């Protein structure tokens, strides 16, 4: 598996645009070439016009890894856009003719191809042509067409006469004449069958027949090459592209090999102090080389095993110990802030989509002018109209955010609640710090960043046009200020450097805005299961019409289900005969133990869910599957902090004296299925073995730093104090940290031994069955 980070800095064409954008994505292992294309946006044609490209072969990536380089743009030629490989077998046979003469026959077998490109987004219809090329001959043969596949299996054999002899002289071995063999080659071309359209070239490879002088049978994989084997005339000066490429390849071992290192990382949240944990040590030793990039696989690993919350709480507490002023809380780039940032990007993607995508789509489609900087105004612009346009956009984004609490990921809410409690404990005299601890993440590091660069969060497909990008910048700056609890005080307006932003932001200095921010931060960070004591106002999260099953009825019968109005607030769940009528039943939120889907077979009804509380379960049927998921999400969110939440549940109902799912007769029998995890609504595809391998790679590349940290711990233990060499590390307990590092060393050595053994037992990538030819994979 490979990962790739691209950094576009600048391209020099007739203009010199500056991009400064990061891209990180997975690429398949068998790729041959990494290509970057530069396009000129066309105002009149449907498709943008290609200007040129930069292509870097896989084996050359290491030369440029981690460094910025200028690359000359090359022309974009359809015949040069090839990928994949072909498996060939060639051999020479001697044949005796009827008159006793002997001839040599070349046998070429097209076995298979792999990795052929998609055509118009679909698998191609490939076929191959096999040509024997010589000074005065060009004999071509063709395979059958294989339908809809990028990995066709041909298994077709072709015969070509290579040489002739006038008479058979009884020689046991026939040698091809030197001048003939030097001039013959086999050319294999791959094409996509276009049916009624023109066939599309997919690539070719050429093999000299002289390879068979020493081997009568040759079998190998060949990379497909551009037409003409890539020979090119000198291109025009198309400009240059400056790139920074970082390519990482992970060789993942069997899962059992990672058990020791994985367990050591998962133990990190329990280590006291947290700075002595394996996860914190990794961040410490990699800080100078890769920043806090090494923490991403740690976050993903802990997240998968539901161990992230206690780790984030501990590292945040450690940072707060070293924070002296409340107004600087969580403002720097630290181990704690980076881990929380990574967590929000992973689990908050769907939250961003629900909250921001609709309003961002509107901004992109309407594209109103919003420039309010007098210096940047164009001729004919009306600053007051622009200010009105910008205010309208900001108001929509702000409203969408402050009304989105029910969509916020439960894990994010749990983290914010911990941050709020830790901040209040650290600075008890400051009533605002509990809000700034949360807003510094949710507004400054989450929503404002997503508004500024929606394409990096998959909220938009492409980078915005310059005018829209400027609008998003102004919106993002305003949202940051609105969300910052410190900036909501009117005496903080002087913090704006730009006069035009000062004037614009004054439009939002109203108590209503402040209360909306405070209410939103309360909703995503407070324990909503508090006793109702007037501390927290009641507000509606969701309401609508459903069908509810009457309690205590038999399984069969239409009267068992009645139409009711269901209403959820932050304090209670209730159902009513009609909207606006008195509640027929009220269930305090604090009594909800679990909210899960109900099997259709329970009552022969679709789109059902159950609310399990201190009394009998409440069975509800929503109007459709979308509504079912929405009800479950809201109810799970509002009850996430309740004590005594269940770990198991019954996916069906208790009817006729037994549970329909597990057939148990005791109604109080614990559930037979695990409850949906906290991250149930987040589709996470985390490969724990791969994440642990990435952790191992970071440790391996920083072993010298790990050794220095071990020496620092030893020195502190001997001399009983902070030494000069220790300032680069966070060492609170030298003995505990030393113990962790020694254990890490043993685990890393053992894992390295597994890698060494694997390397000794397997061939290097790119080996072939016959090692004579160089252009094989």
From TrEMBL:
InterPro entries: C2_dom, C2_domain_sf, PH-like_dom_sf, PH_domain, Ras_GTPase, RASA2_PH, RasGAP_CS, RasGAP_dom. One of its GO terms (molecular function) is phospholipid binding. Residues 290-484 form the Ras-GAP domain. SMART domains: BTK, C2, PH, RasGAP. It holds the Pfam family PH. Residues 1-71, 82-222 form the C2 domain. Keywords: GTPase activation, Metal-binding, Repeat, Zinc, Zinc-finger. GO terms for biological process: intracellular signal transduction; negative regulation of Ras protein signal transduction. Residues 539-640 form the PH domain. This is RAS p21 protein activator 2. It comes from Cyprinus carpio (Common carp).
């Amino acid at each position: 598996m490979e990962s790739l980070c691209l950094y576009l800095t600048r391209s020099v064409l007739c203009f010199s645009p500056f991009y400064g954008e990061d891209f990180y994505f997975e690429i398949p292992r068998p790729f041959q070439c990494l290509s970057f294309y530069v396009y000129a946006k066309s105002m009149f044609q449907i498709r943008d016009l290609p200007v040129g490209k930069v292509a870097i072969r896989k084996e050359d990536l290491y030369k440029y890894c981690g460094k910025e380089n200028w690359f000359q743009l090359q022309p974009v030629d359809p015949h040069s856009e090839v990928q994949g490989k072909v498996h060939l077998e060639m051999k020479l046979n001697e044949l005796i003719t009827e008159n006793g003469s002997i001839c040599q026959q070349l046998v070429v077998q097209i076995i298979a191809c792999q990795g052929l490109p998609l055509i118009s987004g679909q698998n191609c219809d490939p076929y191959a042509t096999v040509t024997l090329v010589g000074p005065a001959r060009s004999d071509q043969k063709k395979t059958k067409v294989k339908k809809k596949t990028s990995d066709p299996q041909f298994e077709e054999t072709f015969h070509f006469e290579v040489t002739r002899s006038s008479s058979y002289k009884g020689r046991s071995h026939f040698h091809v004449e030197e001048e003939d063999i030097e001039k013959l080659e086999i050319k294999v071309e791959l094409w996509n069958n276009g049916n009624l359209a023109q066939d599309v070239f997919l690539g070719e490879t050429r093999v000299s027949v002289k390879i068979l002088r020493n081997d009568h049978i040759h079998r190998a994989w060949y990379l497909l090459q551009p037409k003409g084997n890539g020979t090119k005339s000198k291109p025009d000066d198309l400009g240059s592209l400056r790139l920074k490429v970082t390519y990482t390849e992970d060789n993942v071992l069997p899962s059992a090999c990672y058990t020791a290192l994985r367990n050591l990382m998962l133990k990190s949240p329990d280590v006291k102090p947290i700075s002595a944990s394996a996860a914190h040590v990794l961040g410490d030793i990699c800080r100078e080389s890769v920043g806090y990039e090494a923490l991403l696989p740690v976050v993903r690993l802990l997240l998968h095993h539901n161990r992230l919350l206690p780790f984030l709480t501990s590292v945040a507490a450690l940072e707060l110990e070293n924070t002296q002023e409340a107004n600087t809380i969580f403002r720097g780039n630290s181990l704690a802030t980076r881990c929380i940032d990574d967590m929000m990007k992973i689990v908050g993607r769907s939250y961003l989509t629900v909250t921001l995508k609709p309003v961002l789509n509107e901004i992109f489609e309407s594209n109103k002018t919003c420039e309010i900087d007098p210096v940047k105004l164009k001729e004919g612009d009306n600053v007051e109209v622009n200010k009105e346009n910008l205010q309208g956009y900001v108001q929509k984004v702000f409203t969408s955010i402050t009304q989105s609490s029910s969509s916020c990921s439960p894990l994010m809410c749990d983290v914010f609640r911990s941050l709020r409690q830790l901040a209040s404990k650290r600075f008890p005299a400051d009533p605002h710090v509990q809000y700034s601890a949360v807003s510094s993440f949710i507004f400054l590091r989450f929503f404002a960043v997503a508004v500024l660069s929606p394409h990096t969060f998959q909220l938009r497909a492409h980078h915005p046009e310059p005018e829209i990008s400027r609008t998003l910048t102004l919106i993002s700056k305003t949202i940051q200020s609105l969300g910052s609890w410190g900036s909501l005080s009117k005496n903080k307006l002087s913090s704006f450097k730009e006069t035009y932003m000062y004037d614009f932001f004054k439009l939002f200095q109203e108590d209503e805005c402040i209360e909306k921010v405070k209410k939103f931060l309360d909703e995503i960070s407070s324990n909503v299961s508090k006793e109702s004591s007037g501390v927290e106002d009641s507000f509606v999260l969701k309401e609508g019409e459903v069908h509810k099953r009457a309690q205590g009825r038999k399984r069969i019968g239409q009267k068992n289900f009645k139409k009711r109005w269901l209403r959820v607030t932050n304090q209670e769940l209730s159902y009513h005969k009609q909207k606006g009528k008195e509640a027929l039943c009220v269930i305090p939120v604090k009594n909800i133990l679990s909210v899960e889907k109900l099997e259709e077979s329970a009552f022969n009804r679709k789109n059902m869910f159950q609310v399990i509380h201190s009394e009998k379960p409440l069975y509800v049927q929503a109007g459709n599957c979308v509504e079912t998921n929405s009800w479950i999400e809201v109810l799970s969110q509002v009850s996430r902090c309740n004590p005594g939440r269940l770990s198991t549940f019954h996916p069906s109902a208790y009817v006729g004296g037994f549970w329909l799912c597990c057939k148990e007769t005791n109604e109080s029998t614990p559930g037979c299925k695990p409850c949906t995890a906290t991250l149930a609504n987040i589709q996470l595809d985390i490969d724990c073995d791969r994440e642990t391998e990435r952790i191992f790679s970071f440790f391996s590349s920083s072993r010298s730093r790990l050794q220095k940290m071990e020496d620092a711990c030893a020195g502190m233990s001997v001399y009983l104090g902070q030494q000069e060499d220790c300032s680069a590390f966070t060492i609170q307990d030298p003995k505990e940290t030393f113990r962790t590092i020694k254990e890490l060393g043993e685990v890393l050595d053992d894992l390295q031994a597994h890698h060494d053994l694997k390397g000794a037992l397997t061939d290097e990538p790119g080996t072939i069955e016959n090692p004579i030819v160089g252009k094989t994979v």
